[in-house]
Amino acid sequence: MKHPGIRWHRRAEGPSVGIAALLALPVLIGCDCGPSELESRCRSVRGQRVTVRAGARVSPDAVVGGTEVGCEDEDAARVVVALHEIVGSLPTASRPRLVVELDPVVEMGQAPVTHVEAHRTAGALLVGRSVAGSIHRTAWLHEIAHVRMERAPVSEPVAERLLSAAEEGVADYYAAAHAGTPHLRRGGGAIVRDLERPPRLTALDWASLSGVAPGWDPHRAGWALASGAWAARGADPDLAEDLVASLAVQARGTSGDAPAATLGAWVERCPRSSRGLLRAIVHDWVPAELLREP
Ligand SMILES: [Zn+2]
Q1: Ligand 1 centroid to 230 CA: how many Å?
Q2: Which of 249, 247, 240 minimizes the C-alpha distance to 273?
Q3: For 107-146, what is each residue's pLDDT tens digit?
Q4: Are strands 63-64 and 57-58 parallel, antiparallel or unpaired?
Q5: 3-class secondary structure, 55
Q6: How far apart are CA 130 and CA 116, in angstroms?
Q7: How far is the CA of 75 from the centre of ligand 1 (A)?
Q8: Which domain holds residue 196?
Q9: In which band, very low, low, confident or very high, does the pLDDT at 8 lie, cut at 50, 70 and 90?
Q10: What is the mean pLDDT of residues 37-42?
C-alpha cells in the first residue's frame, strides 16, 4: 500500500496552516506510513546489479565525488527497479554491474545531463532526474552497450570517426536485439531511429568521414549499420553480444587511419561465430572504394 504522506512533509517547505493540518492527518489517524511499494521493490534488489549515486561532478575524463542514494529517493528507486529488470533479462555471462550518477554537475561549457548517457571513461550511466522514471528500455540498452564496450579512442581522426559510428551502430543493434524491436525510442516513447527505415548514406556523408566536408554524424552512420544487421538477422541477441565483444577491446597497436585497415581489424576482432556476417554487413555499409587498401 502506498503512504506518500511522509515524503510530502520532507518536500514541502513552509506549508500553509491548512496544508500542514492536512499533512498531519495520517499521524492523527494512526497511519503506520511504511515504505511505498516502489521503495519496497527497490530495497529487495538494491545493490545486486545497480548502484545509484548523486552529487558527483563530471568532466569528459572523470566522475568525481558524490554518494550513494537509497531507495527512499523516488528517482533512485525508479532507476534501480527498471535497470535491475533489464540487466536480469540479458544473458547471464554478460550482465554488467551498473553505476548510475543522478543529475551530475557538469563543467562550465558542458551540456547538462537531461536524458541518459554513458560516461566512456568512468563506465557509468549519467541520468537526468527529470526523466529518471520515463527512460525507454531501448534507450537504457543502447547506453548499457556503450558502457560494456568502453572502447578507448584512437588517435587517427578518420579511424576514430569510423569506429565511433561503428560503436553507435552496435549500440543500436544491441538495444533492438535485446528489446526485440527495430524501433529505438527515447523517454515518452517517441521513435528516434527505426532500423527498418534507415537513412541512405550519400557521397557527402562519406566525404565528411575523411574531414573534406564537415558534419560526420556517428548516430546517422551507425543507424545505417545497425539496420544492415537487423535486415540480416532481425533480433539476434547472440549476434549483438558478438558485436559488442568486437568493439570491447582497445584498438591498440593501431591499424593506421585508412578505413579498409580499420574495418578489417574490427572484423578480425569479432568472435568467429559472427565474423563472416559482420564482414558482409560492413561491405553493405561502406562504399566499395573505402574498402580498397590505399
Ligand atoms: Zn550512443
Answers
A1: 17
A2: 240
A3: 888 888 989 999 988 889 999 999 999 999 999 999 999 9
A4: antiparallel
A5: coil
A6: 11
A7: 23
A8: 157-291
A9: very low
A10: 94
Q: What's the gap in Å between 218 CA and the centre of ligand 1?
A: 9
What's residue 32's pLDDT? 60
Domains identified in the chain, total number: 2
Q: What is the pLDDT of residues 196-241, one digit of tens each?
A: 999 999 998 999 998 888 889 999 999 999 999 999 999 999 999 9
Q: Report CA(147)–ligand 1 centroid distance (Å).
A: 10
Contact 35, 43 (CB under 8 A): yes
Q: From ligand 1's centre to the CA of 25, what distance in Å?
A: 48
In this structure, are 112 and 219 located in the same domain?
Answer: no
What is the rounded CA–CA span in Å between residue 36 and residue 34? 7
Please tell me the distance between residue 35's alpha carbon and the centre of ligand 1 in angstroms: 36
In a domain, 151, yes or no: no
Q: Is position 128 within any domain?
A: yes
Same domain, 164 and 121: no
142 CA from centroid of ligand 1 (Å): 6
Q: Which residue has the cell 542514494?
A: 69
Do residues 251 and 185 share a domain?
yes
Identify whether residues 190 and 70 lie together within a single domain.
no
Residue 184 included in any domain = yes
